[in-house]
Design goal:
It is a single chain. The protein is of the alpha+beta class. It has a domain of 257 residues: Alpha/Beta hydrolase fold, catalytic domain (Rossmann fold), CATH 3.40.50.1820. The strands form ten sheets. The protein has an eight-stranded mixed β-sheet with strand order 33-34-36-35-37-38-39-40, sandwiched between helices. Strands 2-3-4-5 form a four-stranded antiparallel β-sheet, with no helix packed on it. A four-stranded antiparallel β-sheet has the order 6-7-8-9, with no helix packed on it. A hairpin with a 5-residue loop joins β4 and β5. It is globular. The two termini are 38 Å apart. The mean pLDDT is 93.
Length: 679
């Protein structure tokens, strides 16, 4: 049987693997397998187990809804996880299941759901987060000794809660700087730390969850100190100190009732606290607040004891972001992921700093990993341009590597895939730029129509194995388009100076980089200069509109979820201070500057047919900017259409409603097809 090309509808065939977790004995990996469900127009996830010594793969949970965040008990007998299999109104709850099989039992029954479980070192407690407001906190004390409600009483409470929620948001009263995020408004609740006693013998709850934080701010990512005496966590700034939800500190929360201790200060943005196995150190990620856009994310160490001490940087030799920290079992080094030159690599550095050692590096994108308990292996999820989202295990000394899953192998066996070719080129000023071209399968002789695909961020890094773009690039190539993607100036992965060169210069150096890439591909005879198209999302949407406002060579363009007016962006986005980080500017003092770097300012220069794609609940790059660009182009009688997706937000292309994702891909390719031949 002949193979067929990939289509937008193949989204429903794609499976994804995530969150690998080694068992305490190092013989198995738990992971999450997510599939896209056409019937429910949503996603379903199951937890699977991969045996490293024979049995191979076993589905552990049914996956009828979404089972995520598998976490082994220290003795390996139990697997705790989060699932929305119960009452949808209550949110996802924590369940526990014996690792040798059986039925899962529910540990939590919280009104607003429960977050990722974290077992205490002795396996007798689980820490997690849950969101509450002042009224619900008061109710916790009243209900401390209450027996579980019968079904009728539980239903009555659910109805009362639903009524309260409607009243709470009608009207909405806003009294804080940041009041919405992603696709929803803040509801007056904050995320707090809870601890639940668990019977290690039965895996069942031994009492009710106990809230261990009380300050009105959001807490996340709880981690146990090795002696079980306290939790480390990331804490948002207190209201009145810095009411911006994306700034954070590290805190230590003692479990004997004492006050929490602030571990870091307001001059840095800090996250991911990881205590060393010997209890002496806390490793964490840190960024200087004045340089959030320019600086590298560093790994710092502080003493874990009461004596305190100044933080010290251990990744000073690394000119890249350091992410996803893990300790070696002997507490002498930390491992992390680093993105460099289109690859995400697993690296290691000693606690005294010094040179950074690369442990795993190959032509792939490592998305997540976990170290084995003995520190000799890594289980990791990686994508390649031939096989997206699979689970691997590798010895850190390089002696062995094995691919454990092939979750997309069956359906891909019947598809013809586009080939990806590396492309390094010189920009107009001689700067070397890394890119890739995705070639149409079985392309005939002569140059092909070209789609320039531009990444968002602006400070992110794409790879030839980019999991988030794999399907889109394959769909466009299957329709006969040559796709050009690259990492222009401002991208991560090429050092601090390369990233920082875009600050206060949006659309300048990177425009030259992008156009030089197009020129290179045209000069090689691969792309037809009369059939050029461009698209991108977020900052890529900004650049799509910017390009056609400054260059007339493109036949059609699709701008997605973009920022087109930096003045209004400041007051409507859920990250308003981006303009201060990137331009050191605000709208009332620097109106002219922000307007000069807004694509809307150049609307009269836009003659390229433009399709605008935007989600109605996008609070990152809100839809009024797209509406403004659309109305201006219509008033100027230019060819423009706008597609609005209800309910979805900024993550439409990656995790939006599947029906919308398929429709979006069809509209992008269809818009280019419509303008493929000149009238």
């Amino acid at each position: 049987m002949s193979k067929t090309r990939i289509t937008a509808e193949d989204l429903y065939n794609i499976s994804m693997v995530s969150d690998p977790q080694f068992s305490p004995d190092g013989r198995r990996l738990a992971y999450v397998h997510t599939r896209i469900d056409r019937q429910s127009n949503g996603y379903k996830s199951a937890i699977w187990l991969a045996s490293l010594d024979g049995e191979r793969l076993r589905q552990f949970t049914a996956g009828d809804k979404r089972d995520t965040a598998p976490r082994w008990s220290p003795d390996g007998r139990w697997l705790a996880f989060v699932s929305n299999r119960g009452d949808d109104k209550a949110g996802a709850q924590i369940y526990v299941m014996a690792t040798d099989g059986g039925e899962a039992h529910r540990l939590t029954d919280l009104e607003n759901g429960a977050g990722e479980p974290r077992w205490s070192p002795d396996g007798s407690r689980i820490a997690f987060t849950s969101r509450v407001d002042a009224e619900e906190k008061a109710g916790e004390a009243e209900n401390e000794n209450e027996t579980p409600a019968d079904p009728e009483e539980a239903e009555r409470r659910a109805r009362e809660k639903e009524k309260r929620e409607k009243e709470r948001s009608d009207p909405r009263v806003i009294d804080r700087f940041a009041y919405r995020a992603e696709t929803s408004y803040f509801d007056g609740r904050t995320s707090h730390l809870y601890v639940l006693d668990v019977d290690p013998g039965t895996g069942r709850a031994a009492g009710k969850p106990r809230r261990v934080t009380d300050v009105e701010r959001d807490y996340r990512d709880p981690r146990w100190l090795p002696d079980g005496s306290a939790l480390l966590a990331v804490a948002g700034r207190k209201p009145g100190e810095d009411d911006i939800f994306y700034h954070s500190d590290l805190v230590r929360v003692p479990l004997d009732g004492g006050p929490e201790e602030l571990l870091t200060g307001p001059e840095t943005e800090d996250a991911s606290p990881r205590p060393s196995p010997d209890g002496r150190w806390i490793a964490y990620q840190s960024l200087p607040v004045p340089e959030l856009s320019a600086a590298n994310v560093e790994i710092k160490l502080i003493p874990a004891g009461d004596e305190g001490g100044e933080p010290r940087v251990v990744t000073g030799a690394l000119d890249a972001h350091a992410d996803d920290i893990s300790w070696s079992p002997d507490s002498q080094s930390v491992c992390f992921l680093a993105g460099r030159k289109g690859r995400y690599e697993l690296c290691r550095v000693g606690i005294d700093g010094g040179p950074v050692e690369t442990l795993l590096s190959a032509e792939r994108e490592i998305l997540a990993y976990d170290l084995s308990p003995d520190g000799l292996q890594a289980g990791f999820v990686a994508s390649t341009d031939r096989a997206p989202w699979d689970l691997y295990v590798a010895a850190l000394d390089g002696s062995r590597e094995e691919r454990l899953t092939d979750v997309n192998g069956d359906w891909l066996a019947d598809r013809v895939l586009a080939e990806v070719e590396d492309l390094w080129f010189e920009s107009s000023d001689g700067t070397r730029i890394q890119g890739w071209i995705v070639k149409p399968p079985d392309a005939g002789p002569g140059p092909a129509p070209l789609v320039l695909s531009v990444h968002g961020g602006p400070h992110v890094m794409w790879s030839r194995h980019e999991a988030s773009m794999w399907h889109e690039w394959q769909v466009l190539a299957a329709r006969g388009y040559l796709v050009l993607a690259c990492n222009p100036r401002g991208s991560d992965g090429y050092g601090r100076d390369f990233r920082a060169s875009l600050i206060q210069h949006w659309g300048e150096a990177d425009l030259g980089d992008l156009m030089s890439g197009v020129d290179q591909v045209v000069a090689r005879g691969l792309a037809d200069p009369e059939r050029l198209f461009n698209t991108g999302g977020s900052y890529g949407g900004f650049m799509t509109a910017w390009v056609i406002g400054h260059d007339q060579r493109f036949r059609a363009a699709v701008a997605q979820r973009g920022v087109y007016d930096l003045i209004s962006f400041y007051s409507t986005s859920d990250i308003p201070l981006l303009t201060e980080w990137e331009f050191d500017a605000n709208p009332w003092e620097h109106t002219e500057l922000l307007w000069r770097y807004s694509p809307l300012a150049y609307v009269e220069n836009i003659h390229t047919p433009l399709l605008l794609i935007h989600s109605e609940n996008d609070f990152r790059a809100p839809i009024p900017a797209a509406e403004g660009l659309f109305v201006a182009l219509r008033r100027l009688k230019r060819e423009v259409e706008m597609v609005r997706y209800p309910r979805d937000g900024h993550e439409l292309s990656r995790s939006g409603e599947p029906k919308h994702r398929v429709d979006r891909l069809e509209r992008i390719a269809g818009w280019f097809d419509r303008h493929l031949e000149r009238d």
